[in-house]
Amino acid sequence: MLLQLNASDPRPLHDQVAGGLRRAIAEGRVRPGDRLPPAKDLAEQLDVNPNTVLRALRELRDESLLEFRRGRGITIAEAAEGRAIVTQAAAELETLAGKYGYSRAELISMIERLP
Q: SMART domains recorded for this chain (predicted)?
């Protein structure tokens, strides 16, 4: 199975789906050019609404991790591996910053001041 959801995870389901796919890309379980199963099939495997999966897939497309092509389905983008690692690290950094009371704007300001 490509990914699994965790019922005890407080994140919304679409975030879990997107995070699971980012991780699969970063770990090399799916590679650039690989085709994903149709959203309907993925939703059935995960026992979630197809719209939940579609929302996650659109988010990953907007991050340039996935490519939607008519007639070819959804594929992993060519530059996805490195981008997935950085995106996942950025999300983890944002979570960590929030844990210590920093807002997203403050975190961005910190990053902009890096040498």
A: HTH_GNTR (SM00345)
Distance in angstroms (rounded) separating the CA atoms of residues 68 and 55: 13
pLDDT band at 1; cut points 50, 70, 90: low
Sign of dihedral through CA atoms 36, 38, 43, 44? negative
pLDDT for the residue numbered 28: 84
Q: In this structure, is residue 2 part of a structural domain?
A: no
CATH number of the CATH domain containing 62:
1.10.10.10
Radius of gyration of the chain (CA): 15
Report residue 3: phi and psi, to 5°. Answer: -155, 165
Token output for 58: 């659109």
Residue 74 near residue 68, CB atoms below 8 Å? yes
How many domains would you assign to the chain? 1
Whole-model pTM: value is 0.71
Domain range spanning residue 89? 13-112
